[in-house]
Design goal:
The protein is of the alpha/beta class and 256 residues long. The protein contains ten helices and ten strands. It has one domain: TIM Barrel. The chain is globular and about 50 Å long.
């Protein structure tokens, strides 16, 4: 089991004060196998090439995340945005690009054109592209995601799934049901725990040991599928969480 750390799990004030390069060094020393660089958290002084070079030096696998939708409000491919993001992921040297689905439509979206664009623009190094269930009614809809991934598979398109364990609750979907439906497409997992606060949802650190329902959820996926910390941690306790997650996975597989 490989454990990644998402940059949005780090307190924003610490990330801004220390900068990505220093945070990456701390995360590597804490025992992480990889990091997820978030486009929305990059600062003007950040260089994707420099961040990628440091990650390679520290033997960290690098994933790149953007909040920009794959499909625009007209239900068609956000072609300009996708091409730009693929280029940025290449600059970073990322192994995976993650973005939300957006306004996919089962009838109106031109999937053949999506396939053409991906065929023409996917890097030769095999950059993985995943869509993530986000907190929107469209991008977090299990039926839409299942339909999209099924069509992608039928067209032999290189698109997989980033499964966020907490986001399903924002869109009134059942996480375990989603895991059963989508397990075969999942290449990456975002682990978080959310709870109701004043009518909304709030992300909080996961319970350790993992709650039984969380363990059951993770068992639906391939054991080599990386799991990312996307819940609040501090620079002081991130190493503890990484260690506990790796230990928890070893115990879970022994029991299985």
């Amino acid at each position: 089991m490989k454990v990644f750390v998402c940059m949005n799990a780090i307190p924003t004030e610490r990330l801004q004060a220390l900068g990505h390069l220093e945070i990456i060094k701390i995360v590597a020393a804490a025992g992480a196998d990889g990091v997820e660089i978030r486009k929305e958290l990059l600062m003007p002084e950040d260089s994707l090439e420099e961040l990628g070079a440091l990650c390679r030096e520290l033997n960290l696998v690098t994933y790149y995340s953007s909040p920009e939708f794959l499909f625009a409000p007209d239900h068609q491919l956000n072609e300009k945005g996708l091409k730009r993001l693929i280029g940025e992921a290449q600059d970073l040297g990322a192994d995976l690009l993650k973005l939300p689905l957006g306004s996919y439509h089962v009838k109106e979206t031109n999937m053949s054109y999506v396939n053409e664009v991906l065929t023409e623009n996917r890097p030769n190094d095999g950059l993985a592209i995943t869509i993530e269930n986000d907190q929107t009614s469209g991008g977090g809809n299990l039926q839409a995601i299942t339909h999209f991934l099924g069509r992608s598979e039928a067209l032999d398109m290189p698109i997989e799934m980033t499964f966020d364990t907490g986001n399903w609750l924002y869109t009134a979907e059942e996480p375990l049901m989603a895991a059963r439906e989508l397990a075969g497409y999942v290449a990456y997992v975002h682990l978080k725990q959310v709870r109701r606060v004043n009518g909304g949802w709030m992300t909080e650190p996961v319970s350790m040991p993992l709650l039984p329902e969380v363990t059951e959820l993770l068992q639906k996926f391939n054991r080599i599928c990386p799991v990312a910390i996307e819940f609040p941690v501090t620079l002081e306790n991130v190493a503890t969480y990484i260690s506990l997650m790796k230990m928890e996975q070893e115990v879970t597989h022994e029991r299985a």
